[in-house]
Amino acid sequence: MSSEAKAGKAVFGRVCASCHAGPQFTDGRFHTILPVNAADRGLAEVTGKAEDEGRFRTPTLRNVAATGPWFHDGSARTLRQAVTRHPVTLDASETDQLLAYLEALTDRGFMENSAFAYPDRPCAKD
Ligand code: HEC
């Protein structure tokens, strides 16, 4: 990891890891990050409870630099937007450090390894 990504890891531990927790970078719980929208109610669509309006499950951040557009509704067009639209206070250098760390969580070598690709033709039927 670059020194910037390492600095981002420290910021992440302080500001982000309460929700993006553990090896899968998720606590598996529901939180409100974006403004509540009556047309896109999140958990409340299932539970009908007022306190669940606008709550969505914390997503993993594995390979996150390659999975845009971000948020459940695709409304963050860049990874920077996805980070800065959280209700947290970050200065510009902390944001840059976090972006370097999120890039370091993205294993392009694995994703582009042809040994793990779909086969180029259907498997033979017996
Ligand atoms: C209060 C819990 C919480 C905290 C703290 C938090 N996140 Fe999130 N994060 C979420 C939830 C929930 C979503 C999904 C929101 C949605 O789709 O509406 C999310 C979405 C994201 C996404 C988009 C992922 C995707 O695949 O769409 C990124 C990137 C992200 N968070 C990074 C961060 C970073 C970096 C921090 C620290 C600055 C942080 N988060 C702090 C809960 C949190």
From TrEMBL:
Occurrences of domain Cytochrome c (ranges): 3-106
Annotated InterPro entries: Cyt_c-like_dom, Cyt_c-like_dom_sf, Cytochrome_c_Peroxidase/MauG
Keyword terms: Heme, Iron, Metal-binding, Oxidoreductase, Peroxidase
Protein's recorded name: Cytochrome-c peroxidase
Keyword Membrane found: no
Domain of life: Bacteria
Gene Ontology MF term list: peroxidase activity
Keyword Heme: yes
